[in-house]
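Changelog excerpt

This revision adds worked examples to the README so contributors can see how folded entries look when concatenated. The first example is reproduced verbatim below.
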Amino acid sequence: MSKERTVIDEDVLYEMILEGIQNGFEQFNFTGGEPLYEKKIIISLLKKLAAEGKTPEITIGTNGTMIDDLLLDAMKAYPGKIKFNCSMHAVDEETYLKIISLSQKGIFNHVVGHIQRAVEIEIPVKLNFVLLKGINNSKEYIQKIFDFAIEKRVQTLKFLELLITDKLIYLYDYYYEVDSIAAMFPDDLYLISNEIKRNVYRYKDTDLIIELQKCPCKMGCNTCQQVAGRMLTSDGYYFPCFTLVNNAIKLDQYTQKEAFAKGDQLIKTMGRRYKNGSPLIIQKIQHIKKKKEYYYEVNSTDQNFESWCGVLKNKGANLVMKRTFKEIYFKPQMPNEDWDKNQMIFKVYQNTYNGYKHNHVLAFNKLIEEGGHIYTEVTYLTEKEDARIDDYEEFVKKTFEKKMEITMECNWEINFFEYKGVPFSVGEHLESGMWTLLCEQPFNSEELLGLKSSNVKTNLISFLEKLKLKN
């Protein structure tokens, strides 16, 4: 969210909390921005709640820079459960300063000192780390995070993913899936619980708890009401959806119950629109049995691919998803009549935002001419539950034992759009620099793209081999 906020009166904020308690809420999180800018108000609220015998569970989400003894004393005196969620993102000063975009020397050690002080007086501390590809996501760095937590006697680590919408697409290259961590350390992480919102592990034989937090939006808008909490801001707004800033509900115009009911209607509308999807650009790949694909080769321009996709958005095309991935194609070593007749495809793909997850696809294609256009009918033979590859090296070894060979490797950047109700995708074949367009119906590219395109009239493998030759 980017809405500018002002802080409401402390008494009004306290009444909001009391109303929430009356509505059955037992956990309250003070988040931000940085909530400790209003540290005096938080301390006062803790004292008021304790004085009235109200002891909901309190979590203070902070960057750790403004923790002091006054706050720690107030938290220690609070009779209910209370803890810190401290956003760290790194466990060395150089990486920490790079992530938080500050050059203030000493701030990292300052934060670490505050964390240690909280642990010493037995206030639970959870450290949050947003995974950032190329910065803090390597196996070696994750191990450093584990070691740091054990050394500082931190109770819990939480790993989160970036939330990428079309307005935050510039962050896409940093996105990395938290599930990768479980794959990195299969012998060190012991699953404790598999929840809707997170998977929880114990690290080795220690007391350290590892949470791999799932973004509720990735589960689909139609599940939001089952997994998401209620987000109320200190300036008196309720945000039913944190991807829709302009749909905030002013709480002084409704009771909390009325505001929540109004917000629920918005979430139901989002559920009907997106179903198992969401406004996030990174989404689960939906398993299907059959589809038709019209392929087009696009005449590229002096623009780079990213700039061109920006032009599409400016012309009214809505970006709904983005993928960058690698494909590895296999075929029989010896001539195989059935394989050629059915235009079989056997490939392994890996998304760039998860270096530990591979999937395989087996399908056959059929070229069909209709109304002067050629499309490919693709029938998938791989069941969803069989597609996941747990050990890539072993999978390739067994594939070679079946007398298969690797024929080509392709790297793609693909953006999925919707224009006037028609879904289509545009892709760049990174080896050749060629641009392609794929749609489920004949597509007039000049109207939207401003570029001419030609309908591909060969099967997919032949088309890819053509791109390979242009490399």
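The second example, added in the same revision:
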Amino acid sequence: MKGPKFQEMSDASLDADLRDMEKGLWTLRFKAATGQTEGLRRVRTLRRNIARVKTIQRERELLALSEAEGSKANGQ
């Protein structure tokens, strides 16, 4: 899944997908360590998708902070 699809998702579904991807990445790393490699390309894809989700979550967090500070400054 690419960035634009992640940006359309809600915070709760992003959190759920992030947990699933991290669990899947752990499983793939474990399989790679034991020699049961299915597809190492999937590890890279999962890592990048995890980074995308975390970036979107951080952007939303910073946006909420800046909006809160903006309303706080207007209220004074």
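Reviewer comment on example two: The chain has a mean pLDDT of 89. The first helix runs from residue 3 to 7.
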